[in-house]
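Ligand: manganese (II) ion. Inputs:
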Amino acid sequence: VRPKILVTPDLEAGEWPRLWLKRCYADAVVRAGGLPLVTPYAAEVAELLELCDGVLITGGAFDVPPGEYGETRLPACGPENPERTAFERRLLEGALARGIPVLGVCGGMQLLNVVCGGSLYQDLKTQVPAAGDHEQKTPRDRPAHPLAVEAGSWLARTVGLEGLAVNSTHHQAVNRVGDGLVAVGFGPDGIVEAIEDPRARFVVGVQWHPEMLLDSAPWNLAVYRGLVEAAGERR
Ligand SMILES: [Mn+2]
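Predicted complex:
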């Protein structure tokens, strides 16, 4: 039986609001050996967590409300998706409390950091002007900047240290690292690109989109495999 991975969809406003998911997330879970379960936002987070063995928090074109990490909003902060953030926060808190393996991708990594008490740069261009370009104009299925990985980390044991490059579609980034988390991946400018909890079975966040790089940089499947394998062990 494949480990079941709960995957969070995005919420798009409108006359008939819709929940939707880029299929590359679900495809990556399948390719890694898992069974993706895309669920609506439900108040019954504990019941949702009973259905699954692991949780994937996906990204989206919105920012975590700065109040979630105790800051006031700067002008360059982007649009919010408060209903989604509220659901994913409760889902993350529940998963972390139960030891359920968690992978956060892009905005999902940022929320993971915030839920653990960390903070974000609200806008890299204005707050860290020396940082490189993290909003690539080239196709997202191609790497855009190098990735340096911390030796000894889960990420290093899994993807190695040499010759790594990732795509980059974020205007925010981790600032203060959350409690219990360690920064284990960095861009060439020192911007945090990966975090993990070394005490947990599997709590990992990546700032890039591995699910979009599976063909051009196949090592990325190992990130999703890590989630699925940890989910299988727990079950
Ligand atoms: Mn980047």
